[in-house]
Amino acid sequence: MTDDGVPVHIIGAGPGGLATAAALHEHGISTVVLEKSPSVAASWRAHYDRLHLHTTRRWSSLPGLPIPRSYGRWVARDDFVRYLESYTEHHGIEVATGVEVDSIERHKGEWALHANGGRRLATPVAVVATGFNHTAHMPSWPGREGYEGELLHASRYRNSKPYAGKDVLVVGVGNTGAEIAVDLAEGGATRVRLAVRTAPHIVRRSTLGWPAQANGVLCRRLPTRLVDVLAARMAKVAVPDLSKHGLPRPDTGLYTRARQGAIPIQDVGLISAVRKRKVEPVAAVESFDGSKIQLADGTTVAPDVVIAATGFRRGLEDLVGGLGVLNDEGRPLAHGARTHPEAPGLHFIGYTNPLSGMLRELSLDAQKIARAIARATR
Description:
- By secondary structure, this protein is of the alpha/beta class.
- It has helices spanning 15-26, 42-45, 77-90, 175-186, 212-219, 224-238, 254-259, 270-275, 317-320, 358-376; strands at residues 8-11, 31-35, 95-97, 101-107, 110-115, 120-123, 126-128, 135-136, 150-153, 167-171, 191-196, 202-204, 206-207, 210-211, 265-267, 280-283, 285-289, 292-295, 300-301, 305-308, 312-313, 346-348.
- Helices cover 26% and strands 22% of the residues.
- A five-stranded parallel beta sheet has the order 3-2-1-7-22, covered by helices on one side. Strands 9-20-10-11-16 form a five-stranded parallel beta sheet, covered by helices on one side. It has a three-stranded antiparallel beta sheet with strand order 4-5-6.
């Protein structure tokens, strides 16, 4: 605990919050993790059924407890949830469930956390770990409200069963959109189209046993242009040209795009599905008109279902928007061990999505945050 006997308050019982709590315990600092849901790993429990980690078991483990080898190299969603439950128990982490922090403000040299039920929690040190994928983002397409088919965000998708025999348009070609499209094609949808605004980089999850994540780790400190060149050469060898199927190779380099926030797709079946025409890439969605959808190339489609894999927002504006600690995109200006000059003792973890793997990096950040807090409270 801190000098005045108050535990460090951590908001969010996902991987970032739990890893930070465990790292702080190693320094003899007590914590309380505040979680609005009834259990830890709430966002992971809500992901679609077929999800596996895109990072290896070795580099996805949190500090102080490896993921069991029995879970395999690419850990399934349910196994990762079990791991987080075991991690909480193993480290004796105190989690206060059902506590939703609405806002944070600075008051008399400490942080006041305003929570549901009129609660006000005071602490000199707080860690925000509410998650990278916090708030589902649905674009405000013209005519969307009058769409006569079924429209849902990918966060509500669980499996292909409800869509068997249906014509489905998946909008967005990130990892989630690509994997959902493959899941639908394999699960009996009569037609699956994938709306693409910008051609993505596609990488093999592993090549001859070498995981794509390892390349991301090795390239972290290399010049962006060099990584772009190396990645382009590797793609020509490992990934077929899908231009004739509607997925041309991107014009912008892989690392350049990653630094802009666009992580490459790890292939878990998309290449094969596109080549076999089980998944049809089409132009981006422009607008809705009754039962029809206008695409950017002027064509019109009329699917039964539209699944918007259009990403998430960090959702930090209501929580800390008045503190001046966010950039124009709603991400923390200071992250990990660093704190904003106007917000001493307020840390953020889990708001980056690097090529080297989010879980790997937040594990490192958790330990850095713990060391920084330990130094500050001596």
